[in-house]
# Entry
Amino acid sequence: MINLTIDNQQVVVEPGTSILEAAQKVGAKIPTLCYYKDLNIIGACRICVVEVQGARTLIPACVAPVAEGMVVKTATPEVIKVRKLILELILSDHPQECLTCARNQNCELQKLAEEFGIKEIRFAGAKTEYPIDDSSPAIIRDPRKCVLCRRCISVCTNVQTVQALCAENRGFNTLIAPAFNEKLADMECVQCGQCSLVCPTGAIVERDDTAKVWAALADPEKHVVVQTAPATRVQLGEALGAEPGSIFTGQMVAGLRRLGFDKVFDTDFTADLTILEEGNELLQRVTTGGTLPMITSCSPGWIKFCEHFYPDLLDHLSTCKSPQQMFGPLVKTYYAEKEDIDPADIYCVSIMPCTAKKYECQRPEMNSSGYQDVDVVLTTRELGRMFKQAGLDASNLPDEEYDEPLGISTGAGEIFGASGGVMEAALRTVYEVVTGETLENIDFEVCRGLTGVKEATVQVGDLPVKVAITNGLGNARKVLDKIRAGEADYHFIEVMCCPGGCIGGGGSPIPTDTDIRLKRITATYTEDERMSLRKSHENPAIIALYEEFLGKPLGHKSHELLHTKYTSRGVNK
Amino acid sequence: MKSLDELAKIKESRRAALKIREGVPSATEKAHVMMCGGAGCISSKCLDVVDAMKEALNKNGIADQVQIILTGCMGPCDMGPVAIVYPDATFYRRLKPKDAEAIVEEHIMQGNQIPRLMYRTPGAKEPTPRVNDIDLFAKQKKIVLRNNFYIDPTSIEDYIANDGYAALGKALTKMQPEDIIEEIKKSGLRGRGGAGFSTGMKWGFTAAASGAPKYVVCNGDEGDPGAFMDRSVLEGDPHSVIEGMAICGRAIGAEQGYVYVRAEYPLAIERLDYALQKARKNGLLGKNLFGSGFNFDIEIRIGAGAFVCGEETALLTSIEGKRGEPRPRPPFPANAGVWGKPTVLNNVETWANIPEIILKGADAYAAIGTEKSKGTKVFALAGRINNTGIIEVPMGTTLREIVFEIGGGIPRKKAFKAVQTGGPSGGCIPAEHLDTPVDYDSLGALGAIMGSGGMIVLDEDTCMVDIAKFFLDFIVDESCGKCSPCRIGTKRMHEILDNISNGKGKEGDIELLEELATTIKATALCGLGQTAPNPVLSTIRYFRNEYEEHIRDKKCSCNVCELKE
# Structure
């Protein structure tokens, strides 16, 4: 153990602890900007400098390890003066468009400027001017607002292993962008939006599509329906100022009605439907010698990743569309027929914890209803913005129920939002369908949690079903490489693009860190337990859907509306 | 190379052939013409002179009796092309192809030296024929550049003849690794890259560090404007660097070395690469050197033109194939260098010192220099000085001796104003400190640094605001952009300086510059940023009046800055 003194207090910490972490133990809060716990610890911004006795220079607390006998002062007048000047320098190369910025009041730079009481910027020199990249349907990059913290590079390179972003040029002209300053839309970028979650400022944000939704709501000719992804109900509260882990299901439904949506439906419904289709696809592959392992296909970031980096493994992907994209065509066929509405007049809005869904709904194959199946996708953050604009205080809204029939769901659909949830939901159904027995304990704890790669063997009748579950694309890579090498004997693999699953998706409220992810996961399983039905095949609306419209799982209509194909994209060279 | 005996045999046989370069006339050869083949002389077309000379030798039928050898840089670049004709060691300068015939027919064939091609000390009536009698050379002390006058850099035999690889042989057959480190510590050698850290201690830390394999790295990314010491060594005596690195490999337990050279040094890369091939061919790199069981080899890594890659952690990152950006220290390279493994990184000049220390002993080396700065230092003289080029002097030589005796003073009878040492990381030292001995600590105390050896002389016509702006301009261009104080702070300093020199300076600018400078020094990530404000701080310290004149009177007394009202 290492003994040191921080602000005149004795501290004992493990060797290798940073000064920043040690200081937290004695309640000394050192300001940071580029630092991001467990992700980006590079000592670039220099806001966290502290005084270390005997050191020639000030020392960056985030990267500097403690040493025996070290004497640290975290907030001397000199240190504060220096931090202020560095902040002033950073602000001098910033557009200062706070009032019109997507991150207004949720910006780490703005917060620092406020805390340090920056009242004047004495440097009226050049500012970096690079054009905004709005090529992507999901993510907008504004390099002018970039503070070059490189968190986006870290998450894209080290967590997602996509490497769509890197540092280019040097000095004052340094630019964080796709290699050779390509457009994001032309890159292997999978649109997961994890970069937008970790960006401290408004340099990387989701494309804001709220105006389209307001316009649709204002159009009397349009029948505007909305579907809400499983994770949104455990996220929306945060976007409106509630504590992480708050569950706002009923209030979200109520709020959406007040915004003027004609019907408030639930993606949980098509999550249940996915289980029926995908579960049967798995059984078919197992019994007919199809390509195994089969891999889930709910996560559009993951799909694009596979298309770019593992095009040779596309046959392993389930042909099922994601729940969002099963919902779209059903609303414009089944629901339209049932309610006798011209599908051309239906405007289908999705609320998703995801930026990649914005990309997914624009894929050319997603038109099986004869129209663009899902018209527009809003992230949880954008929905929070609409609630605020409408003056909806979610905590004062009543608890309302989803509309029938596409709003009826089970706990199995709900847990799609967390890593392992799709697998657990599938196991609940597959077990009962195959064995004909009632599953005693439906909680598959082995599927749950933040572990990067989870593996389990579940006895289903005579067959020991081997499964793997990954979250974060870097972890997916580990399993995919095993498949490539012929070393994977799994039957079924769940891959979720984002760390923790959709509850940590790129469209989630900011901040989203490990602790917050865990709280949302807990809330997800609380929702699951609250539901009277917790197995997809018991969803009466799904049973009715098959009876009235689809026929049977994997049937002709299913194939037409609910299944898709993939494109080998390869890597830019 | 299997043994010291084998080495000794090569040395003896070659040495006999080189007696003529020590002034001993040869029965079979009339002369050895050592033509400076440094990049400077090549630029001033020394190769045309060589061709003309070959033609003259052929015409006179004595081509087989005269050797023309293209050496490394001899130093006095402004006099190039230069040559030394042995056995009488006559120094000729500013040679033109048309002079070749005279040298062959008058000097070599008839023994009549040619006064018009000789060097004349400023003010002296007669020229000085012999190289070692010339002031410029007589006051120097050559350790690092010991071979540049004498050997063909492409001949490993020449290098061996001058005791080359004897130090490696000694280190491998007669010394334990810890003895080698002890010897280097005792020599007092400090890093010649500029920071001046004890080389022996650095090796000791790396030897003691856990982790394998370990690496030896040579920093040849010399980037200070006007500095070309390392280039001279790599071009003129590449084996001295190879030998130094191999000795270190033995001392710390490394089998792999890397030499990182900037791409702008194609000749240095070519000569080094050739030397590496020769060393391998002769068993001086590779497996089981001198039968000791020790293996060592070296790879060249070519930089891509970023100044910051001379910073050690950026260099290591660049070797790994990544964008050359510094990383925080600790961990230091001794513990986590290339590929995260323990690594010794020294600069070219430091490496070239190693064989001499091992061969002649630490005490002999430590006898040269001052109490805390041992040995010699190579400098690149540039700017407003008569003898521009490369020199090597004992530590402790005063600035006055360097500028006025070796450097020959200021041209056109102008007054000396300051000398800028240490390049963009260094500072300007004014006339009142001309008697300062050149060593790490004395220069540091004056707000300058030893640096890698760039020395730019400024005369009365030099505007100090302009000089500060010049260096800052360089830094703004070369900052890697990783840390905010350097990336934005140096840009803002440059903008303020630009305003001052344009007549847009205002009261408070000097204070703002000082505030920025001290903050950048205290907070920048790497050595580049931490020293970047030095040229500004030192000029404010010694020439504040010039800044004030620009700001208040909108005037530049040196008529350099164009101030607009």
Observations:
- Chain A has three domains: 2-75, 123-206, 210-562.
